[in-house]
Specification:
129 residues; mainly beta; six-stranded antiparallel β-sheet; two-stranded antiparallel ribbon; 1 helix; Ribosomal_eS4_KOW; Ribosomal_eS4_central_sf; ribosomal protein; rRNA binding; ribonucleoprotein
């Protein structure tokens, strides 16, 4: 596109002349009627994210660290609301909120993975009632 700055979203929308502060992996908020960007969140430590692929799919947490590996996959370390830390590839991370305030409604479990014992206890408690 002959030097026109543009960005492409995860759902293949193309927006021309975006805010120059928006970089790769940032999250933007779009007004669906006009197609204009209303707000954006930087991909940065301390922001809330959701994992969209890999073994930790569906988990939600705060970005604590980003390991850069030139020529390979960057690794992002995330800490969930229960204090459990996990790591995943940068390509599996989607920023969903500033600080720990989400822009979207979260699923029932709030994106927290329970241990097998905790899941069993929850199932048995539900069966009892």
């Amino acid at each position: 596109t002959k030097g026109i700055p543009h960005l492409v979203t995860h759902d293949a929308r193309t927006i021309r002349y975006p805010d120059p502060l928006i970089k790769v992996n940032d999250t933007i908020q779009i007004d669906l009627e006009t197609g204009k960007i209303t707000d954006f969140i930087k991909f940065d430590t301390g922001n809330l994210c959701m994992v969209t692929g890999g073994a930790n799919l569906g988990r939600v947490g705060v970005i604590t660290n980003r390991e850069r590996h030139p020529g390979s996959f960057d690794v992002v370390h995330v800490k969930d609301a229960n204090g459990n830390s996990f790591a995943t590839r940068l390509s599996n991370i989607f920023v969903i909120g500033k600080g720990n305030k989400p822009w979207i409604s979260l699923p029932r479990g709030k994106g927290i993975r329970l241990t097998i014992a905790e899941e069993r206890g929850k199932r048995l408690a539900a069966k009892q009632s």
